[in-house]
Amino acid sequence: MDASSAYQDTLPLSSDALLAQLDDWGLEYRLHSHVPLRTVEDAKAVEDQFMVPGENALRLKNLYLRDKKKRNYLVTLEQSREIDLKALGAELGIGNLSFGSADRLLQNLGIRPGAVSPLAMINGVQNNVRFFMDAAAQQADVIYMHPLVNDRTVAMAQSDLMAFFDRIGCDVTWLP
User: Fold this and answer.
1) Are the C-beta atoms of 102 and 110 separated by less than 8 Å?
2) What SS3 state is found at 67?
3) Diameter of the chain measured on Cα atoms
4) What gap in Å lies between CA 176 and CA 173, rounded to an integer?
5) Tell me, what's the pLDDT at 48?
6) What's the pTM?
7) Rounded average pLDDT per 10-residue block, the chain, 176 residues
8) How far is CA 157 from CA 52, 80, 84, 128, 129, in A?
9) Which residues contact 39 (CB under 8 A, 6 or more apart)?
10) CA angle, residues 168, 39, 56, in degrees to nearest 5
11) DSSP character for 41?
């Protein structure tokens, strides 16, 4: 099954329900629909369709990771940032990291591969997923991310994203 909105009703929380929750909380965003994006390269190919010239924006890549003790992590980085999983695990003091399976991704974050997003922490907080975010997000005015499906992107003000994390009780650990 793919990660597009055509299958959102098979998720624990649909993209439509997430967007309705953002609306209820008064959190603003711009919604863009597009072809399904599975990789950073896919995203770079279409981002000109919705990026605003001169906007101080952060475009993301997201990694769902696990350690040997079966603890789960969501790591959100600027899309072009290189990452060494071994060095990251050492830096965070959590040992060796590896990618989590598609089944565990659905179980712990309520999403499918290709739709990984900080917004999935709405499910992740209930499953003890630890969240790490690139410190570059603190300097961005707008952050682009998937709303639990990969054929939609939301552009959300950094302040609204932080308010979202507060609402769901998500602690953000900043990565330098």
Assistant:
1) no
2) strand
3) 44
4) 10
5) 83
6) 0.94
7) 93 98 98 90 86 92 95 96 92 92 98 97 98 97 97 97 98 95
8) 13, 20, 29, 26, 23
9) 114
10) 60
11) H
Chain centroid to Cα 86, Å, comes to 21
- Residue 92's pLDDT is what? 87
Q: Could you say which DSSP state residue 75 is in?
A: E
Alpha helices in the chain (DSSP H): 15-24, 40-46, 85-92, 102-109, 121-124, 158-168
Instruction: Judge contact between 147 and 31, C-beta under 8 A.
Output: yes
Which value, in Å, is the radius of gyration of the alpha carbons in the chain? 15
Sort 104 into a burial class: Cβ within 10 Å, 0-12 / 13-18 / 19+: middle
Tokens of 18: 């997430």
DSSP class of residue 101 equals: P
The residue with tokens 């890549």 is 61
Q: Give the integer Cα–Cα distance in Å for 159 and 27.
A: 9
pLDDT reported for residue 45: 87
- Residue type for position 35: V
